[in-house]
Amino acid sequence: MNDQTALNTNKFSTKELVLIAMFAAITAVCAWISIPIGAIAVTLQIFAVFCAVNLLGGRNGLFSILVYLLLGAVGLPVFSGFKGGIGVLAGPTGGYIIGFIFIALIYWAGTKLLGDKLPWRIALMLTGLAVCYAFGTVWFVFGYSKGENHMSFLNAMKICVFPFIPFDLGKLVLSLLITEPVKSALKKM
After folding, report:
1. For residues 160 and 39, is the Cβ–Cβ distance under 8 A?
2. What is the pTM (predicted TM-score) of this model?
3. Third-level CATH fold of 3-188
4. Cα 39 to chain center, whole Å?
5. pLDDT of residue 1
6. What is the reported pLDDT for 31?
7. Residues whose CB falls within 8 Å of the CB of residue 74, separated by 6 or more in sequence, listed in order
8. What does the domain layout of the chain look like in residue ranges?
9. Is 55 within 8 Å of 84 (Cβ atoms)?
10. Nearest 5°: phi and psi at 85?
11. Residues of the chain with pLDDT under 70
12. Can you give the pLDDT at residue 164?
């Protein structure tokens, strides 16, 4: 492989760029659809993340998540509750949003190593979700425990993770039901 061929494999096609931007926008819209339950609202962000990685693949799914995070970090109201800014990401629940990156990275690495058969993709998304939960919970404990407050990891899991597991598993199933036919149609284009 010559240097020019190696460079071309890292470029994005116009179709990929459009889909990355589209999924960053879809993730923002899904963040606005929320039902408050405790400290963290049930949103459809994770549904959009699952759709992005399953439809676009790990690399392009990762870039759609990074674009979404960048839009929010600069202040656009793309997060839950029409919020934006670095303060949302730095806040106690920001780790769960940043944790979306791990879903895409694990999916990307896993599909490279294990292939892209459906059972592997499901296992990779579940693994990514577990890592997202763990990262977000550590972030929450750290953010909440500043000053005189104290929060244990287990209490944070009870507040921020356990109530959301059934919803997130449902979002994973729904994302597969939607993206699998779309994926087949896109391959024909």
Report:
1. yes
2. 0.90
3. Arp2/3 complex 21 kDa subunit ARPC3 (1.10.1760)
4. 19
5. 43
6. 95
7. 84
8. 3-188
9. no
10. 110, 160
11. 1-9, 38-40, 147
12. 93
